[in-house]
Each structure stands twice: as structure tokens, then as C-alpha cells.
């Protein structure tokens, strides 16, 4: 496998009014008990390390975390196996695991965004967008959607404010379910502090997919992966409505994606 440093990169140019961060951070404290609970999770460590000895951690039968990624020899890249598999949580191995960092094939998102991404002015979306300078294979990791981690109360306030002032909205809500029951909600806002993930626009027929990835913290990272092979110069987009599009809310803005199946409006996941 190529050295992770040859494939990944996180020194992208960004506008000055945004603090560039490498991974999600806690929102400023508002002193609420809701914030304290979020902070507790943020500061916790997942204690479910694998006990593999020098293996590749590829297989769920041998590694408690494995089975979600596969190494594509042709592209010399680790990729997410099948999108349907994400019904099972993606948990990467970490420094506390028994495996070796050099041979483990269950570490991807933790190495940061891929190289050859470019922020550009998208004429279709009449604002910034993100595109790739080179071909990206299906399942490849693009980047994290990193920003401030918000409480539900703070997210509702910011959404309302964005709506009232007609600002662009960067708040993303990801619900995780188990047996149809909602287990956890993760809300990320890269409007003030964020990474390159903040430039992906919404499409009703997207070429990227967003999934929850845990490394060593109970709060997942929001990982953006290629939903299909993506050609050089293609703009990267994902569906803002997330996992259950029947529950999408209408953000009140016309969608500019121009896909054949476009609903005509920009969605977001509802916050309950
Ligand atoms: C996460 S930001 C994406 C990056 C943004 N275009 C920029 O210039 O920074 C989300 C905002 O981009 C715009 N946007 C994204 N997808 C869109 C779409 N399909 N149709 C219309 N506007 C879109 C909306 O203003 C939305 O609030």
C-alpha cells in the first residue's frame, strides 16, 4: 500500500473568514446540560479495541472492527466495500488496538482528505464547489465533513438564523438508526470553523455518499466517500437529505443540481 502521506493531504487554500480545522471540534460552551452531555461524549474514548496481532484487520470474523474496507490493488487504495454495508457501523482500528498501524487495512478516514481536490467557482451552483483533478474510484474516501459539533438547541438556532438572514446553510444532521430506532444524532456546522468538506454542494443524484465513521470517540466523523467512479474535473456532491429521504425537510431554497430526478428543492435532515 502507498504511504498514507502520499495519498492524503490537508493543506487546502480556504477563505480567510473560516478557521480551517482538521477534524470536528466542540461548539463554544453555552453552559447548558445538553452541551455538557455533548462534551462528555466528545472527551470519551471508545473502549472496543481489536486484539489482532499484526494482521490486516480485513475480516469481521477475525477483527471486531474489520470487514467494511477493501484494498483495491489496481488503484493501490483502500475503499469502502459496499454502501449497503454501512448499515453496520464503520469502526476503524486506532492506536489502542492490538494490530500494527503498518499492516492494518482498517484505517482510512483517520488519515485525512485525499489529494487533488480543488475548491472552485461552480457556475451550476453559483457559489463555491469542490471538484477532483483526477479520477476517483468508487468507494474511495474523499474527506471528512468537519466543523463545529452542535447541540440540537444550538443547531435549531443557527438554522433559524441562516433562514432569516438568507445565509448559506452549512449545518448537517446525521441520524444513525439500529432496527429502525434512532440511536444517535450528530450535527456538524462548518460555517465558522471547517475543512474542505464544507464546499460540497447538494445533488439529488450525487456522486458521493456520507457515512458515520468512528475511530476512538463515540461521536462519529462524517466521512464522505465516492458513491461511484468519478471522472477528473467532476464536481463532488452528496445528498443533503441523508439516510432517510422520506423524512427530509425543505430548506426553502430552489435546488440547482439539474439532475433528471431533481425534486426542485434543497433538502436537509429534520432535527427532532
Ligand atoms: C455546505 S454549503 C456548500 C458550499 C457553498 N456552495 C459555498 O459557496 O460555500 C451549502 C450551501 O451551498 C448552496 N447549495 C448547495 N447545494 C445547492 C443546490 N443543490 N442548489 C442550490 N444551492 C445549493 C446553498 O446556498 C447551501 O446553503
Automatic annotation (TrEMBL):
The keyword S-adenosyl-L-methionine applies. Residues 251-267 form the Post-SET domain. SMART domains: SET (SM00317). Residues 115-241 form the SET domain. Pfam families: Pre-SET, SET. Keywords: Chromosome, Metal-binding, Methyltransferase, S-adenosyl-L-methionine, Transferase, Zinc. InterPro entries: H3K9_Histone-Lys_N-MTase, Post-SET_dom, Pre-SET_dom, SET_dom, SET_dom_sf. Residues 48-112 form the Pre-SET domain. GO terms for cellular component: chromosome; nucleus. It is found in: Chromosome. Signal peptide: none annotated. One of its GO terms (biological process) is methylation. It comes from the Eukaryota. GO terms for molecular function: histone methyltransferase activity; N-methyltransferase activity; S-adenosylmethionine-dependent methyltransferase activity; zinc ion binding. PROSITE patterns: POST_SET, PRE_SET, SET. Gene3D superfamilies: SET domain. This is Histone-lysine N-methyltransferase set-23. The gene is Dana\GF17909.
Amino acid at each position: 500500500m502507498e504511504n498514507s502521506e502520499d495519498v492524503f493531504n490537508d493543506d487546502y487554500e480556504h477563505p480567510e473568514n473560516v478557521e480551517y480545522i482538521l477534524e470536528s471540534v466542540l461548539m463554544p460552551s453555552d453552559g447548558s446540560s445538553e452541551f455538557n452531555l455533548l462534551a462528555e461524549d466528545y472527551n470519551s474514548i471508545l473502549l472496543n479495541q481489536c486484539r489482532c496481532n499484526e494482521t490486516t484487520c480485513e475480516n469481521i470474523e477475525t477483527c471486531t472492527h474489520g470487514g467494511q474496507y477493501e484494498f483495491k490493488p489496481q488503484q493501490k487504495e483502500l475503499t469502502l466495500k459496499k454502501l449497503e454495508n454501512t448499515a453496520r457501523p464503520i469502526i476503524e482500528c486506532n492506536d489502542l488496538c492490538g494490530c500494527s498501524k503498518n499492516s492494518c487495512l482498517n484505517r482510512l478516514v483517520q488519515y485525512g482528505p485525499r489529494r487533488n481536490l480543488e475548491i472552485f467557482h461552480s457556475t451550476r451552483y453559483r457559489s463555491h464547489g469542490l471538484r477532483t483533478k483526477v479520477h476517483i474510484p468508487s468507494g474511495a474516501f474523499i474527506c471528512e465533513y468537519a466543523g463545529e459539533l452542535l447541540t440540537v438547541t444550538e443547531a435549531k438556532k443557527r438554522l433559524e438564523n441562516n433562514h432569516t438572514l438568507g445565509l448559506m446553510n452549512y449545518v448537517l444532521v446525521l441520524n444513525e438508526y439500529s432496527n429502525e430506532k434512532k440511536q444517535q444524532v450528530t450535527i456538524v456546522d462548518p460555517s465558522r470553523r471547517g475543512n474542505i468538506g464544507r464546499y460540497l454542494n447538494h445533488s439529488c443524484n450525487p456522486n458521493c455518499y456520507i457515512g458515520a465513521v468512528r475511530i476512538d470517540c463515540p461521536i462519529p466523523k462524517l466521512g464522505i466517500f465516492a458513491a461511484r467512479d468519478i471522472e477528473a474535473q467532476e464536481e463532488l456532491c452528496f445528498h443533503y437529505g441523508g439516510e432517510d429521504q422520506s423524512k427530509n425537510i425543505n430548506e426553502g431554497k430552489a435546488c440547482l443540481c439539474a439532475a433528471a430526478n431533481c425534486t426542485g428543492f434543497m433538502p436537509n435532515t429534520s432535527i427532532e
